[in-house]
């Protein structure tokens, strides 16, 4: 195999891309539960022009329908606590129900939650939430990435949430 400057540059660019996704994913997991929820909210609503179309199409949302319906019956306070419990991997019946969903279904679940947030059915980001500089930087980085990188970061974020007793 012949190595050229172009192939070397392409290889280096792909390594940088993988490193950037890995770095953003690690930084995301270091944030507080509320900051992680805010990033998901903004990623699905602000960056959603490119992110959200893929989520429902790839998911088997019928597997999450019962949990989505349950979330819709919760008060805003209960919804926010449920989402915090997902991020913090607290062991509850609802976080277990989420924890056993497939990765694509988890992506679709958050897409549906974001849609329900914009409709006022699910609690939106609290009005008194102050986005930290870390969150602003991370969101800026996520929105500058290509579609595939954005999905990889979201997938990494949502797959770790919930409680799976077998994990």
TrEMBL record:
**What is the top-level taxon of the source organism?**
Bacteria
Entry GO MF terms: chloride ion binding
List keywords of the entry alphabetically: Antenna complex, Chromophore, Membrane, Phycobilisome, Thylakoid
**Which Gene3D superfamilies does the annotation name?**
Orange carotenoid-binding protein, N-terminal domain (1.10.2090.10)
Cellular component per GO, a single term: phycobilisome
Record flagged with keyword Cell membrane: no
* GO biological process, alphabetically ordered: light absorption
Residues in OCP N-terminal domain copies: 18-167
Q: Which InterPro entries match?
A: Orange_carotenoid-bd_N, Orange_carotenoid-bd_N_sf
Q: Which family does it belong to?
A: Belongs to the orange carotenoid-binding protein family.
Q: What is this protein called?
A: Orange carotenoid protein N-terminal domain-containing protein
């Amino acid at each position: 195999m012949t190595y050229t400057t172009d192939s070397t540059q392409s290889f280096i660019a792909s390594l940088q891309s993988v490193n950037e996704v890995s770095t953003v994913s690690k930084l995301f997991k270091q944030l507080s539960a509320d900051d992680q929820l805010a990033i998901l909210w903004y990623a699905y609503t602000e960056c959603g022009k490119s992110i959200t179309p893929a989520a429902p199409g790839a998911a088997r949302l019928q597997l999450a329908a019962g949990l989505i319906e349950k979330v819709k019956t919760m008060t805003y306070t209960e919804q926010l606590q449920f989402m915090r419990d997902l991020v913090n991997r607290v062991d509850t019946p609802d976080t277990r129900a989420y924890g056993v969903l497939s990765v694509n279904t988890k992506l679709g679940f958050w897409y549906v939650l974001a849609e329900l947030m914009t409709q006022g059915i699910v609690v939106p980001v609290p009005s008194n939430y102050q986005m930290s500089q870390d969150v602003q930087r991370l969101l800026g980085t996520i929105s500058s990435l290509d579609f595939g990188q954005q999905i990889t970061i979201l997938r990494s974020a949502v797959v770790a949430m919930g409680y799976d007793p077998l994990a």
